[in-house]
Amino acid sequence: MDSSFPTRKIIHVDMDAFYASVEQHDDPSLKGKPIAVGGEHRGVVSAASYEARKYGVRSAMPSKTAKEKCPHIIFVPPRFARYKEISKQIREIFHEYTDLVEPLSLDEAYLDVTENKKDIESANQIAKEIRQKIFEQTGLTASAGISVNKFLAKVASDINKPNGQKTIHPDRIESFLEELPVEKFYGVGKVTANKMFSLGIYKGKDLKKKSLEELVRLFGKSGGYYYNVVRGIHNSEVKPHRIQKSVAVERTFFEDLFDDQEINDKLEHLSQELHQRLQKNNILGRALTLKIKYKDFSLFTRSFTKEDYFTSPEQYFNTGKKLWELRPFDKPVRLLGLSLSHLNTEEKKQVSIQLKIPFEEFENQ
């Protein structure tokens, strides 16, 4: 790790299956059962309980697919007001320790506890206290990752999930990253991981052998990001007041699409997912952009801006279809995306909910 970068004490706290856990806590009859938060018919899964995940059910999965994977799954409609209420309680706990809190969404956040309000030297101890207080006040469990930067803390928080934590000490960063499977690196999605596998890159030590020039040639601007993080370098600060400029959802397809009905189905799913992300953080926007990446990697984007805000998945879907009709080419599609900008966050100065990482393209995981 480059010693020229400042050493911080960063905690990433991530609630365990947050929406689903809230529903199981509030309705004890759901405990121990596979549940999905979302619409049973014509929708996508917002969250899945750990019992449902055992069957392969994941967030952003079409409800129909979730039902096929787990026929006895129980669908529960989302209650975003309740999730926000609990999220507020959790953030109040965070602020007992530090004001350097950067929320990524309702259920996860970064905390910089290098200097903290309780003068506790051990970030590991702070994470334990926070997780215990969350459980005592909400009845829910959280996992945490602790290290010297946001990237490492984020990776660490997944290791002992659910209801656990992991500290990556400065003197163990190099050995930890060298043995970490590349698909576990935050920012490496399924498509990129498969490309790395095809190049013989399976662990951090394989990635570390590649030069900066080679990684940039292979992965574009994301190559520089991979080159740095495999060496433990990620100098992004915890920023509690960043303003979000846009919200985007994208899908890269394993098989290229050409049929209009398939495109409509994908646009409908993307519209539902976009709406849920916006609802989750009380965000509205006026400009919708359709992104199309073709089989030959050529890119087309087209936007439509309203005078008032978009408010429903039907509006995103209908506008997306009209933008699709304006496409210049009829050729196979490998990626579709919808994004919303001109957000009310710019007017309300809301807290940012996304970690800025230079992806070549966004990959849902």
Question: Your description of this structure?
Answer:
With 365 residues, the protein is an alpha+beta fold. The protein is 37% helix and 21% strand. The chain is built from 14 helices and 12 strands. The chain has helices at 18-26, 50-53, 63-69, 80-94, 123-138, 150-157, 173-179, 190-198, 204-208, 212-219, 222-229, 260-280, 313-325, 345-348, and strands at 10-15, 35-38, 45-48, 74-76, 101-105, 108-112, 142-147, 165-167, 247-257, 285-294, 299-305, 333-343. The strands form 3 sheets. The protein has a 5-stranded mixed sheet with strand order 5-6-1-7-8. The chain has a 4-stranded antiparallel sheet with strand order 9-12-10-11. The two termini are 27 Å apart. Mean pLDDT is 88; it is low at 348-365.
In short:
By secondary structure, this protein is an alpha+beta fold.
The average pLDDT value, as a whole number, equals: 88
The residue fraction in helices comes out at 25-40%
Strand order of the largest sheet: 5-6-1-7-8
The end-to-end distance, rounded to whole angstroms, is 27 Å
Count of alpha and pi helical runs: 14
| Major sheet attributes | 5 strands, mixed
Low-pLDDT runs: 348-365
Alpha carbon gyration radius: 21 Å
- Beta-strand percent range: 15-25%
Helix and strand content put the structural class at alpha+beta
What is the strand tally? Answer: 12
Backbone shape: globular
Oligomer: single chain
What letter string, H or E per element, gives the SSE order? EHEEHHEHEEHEHEHHHHHEHEEHEH
